[in-house]
Design a protein that fits this description.
This protein is α+β, with helices and mostly antiparallel strands and 71 residues long. The protein has one helix at residues 12-23; strands spanning 2-5, 8-9, 35-41, 44-49, 55-59, 66-70. Helices cover 17% and strands 41% of the residues. Bound molecules: zinc ion.
């Protein structure tokens, strides 16, 4: 599992938690079920949190193993 935040790799424990939240359709930042799917390109999917505005690029969409925060 890989989570990239601000161009840096998140530490393993933190990355696992964030991926877990994303898989559960929860925002890793505010823990709300407010993720809205956005544009999809290839195997990647954009998610935007309607509650706090956090944006993520995740892949693959069904069982996420990669997530990158989008500024
Ligand atoms: Zn949020």
């Amino acid at each position: 599992m890989i989570v990239v935040e601000d161009d840096k790799l998140a530490p393993p424990g933190v990355a696992e938690q964030m991926i877990h939240h994303l898989r559960m359709d929860r925002c890793p930042d505010c823990r709300q079920h407010s993720l809205r799917p956005g544009p999809r390109g290839g195997a990647a999917q954009n998610l935007t949190c309607d509650a706090c505005g956090a944006r993520w690029n995740v892949a693959p969409p069904r069982y996420i193993t990669f997530a990158q925060r989008i500024d």
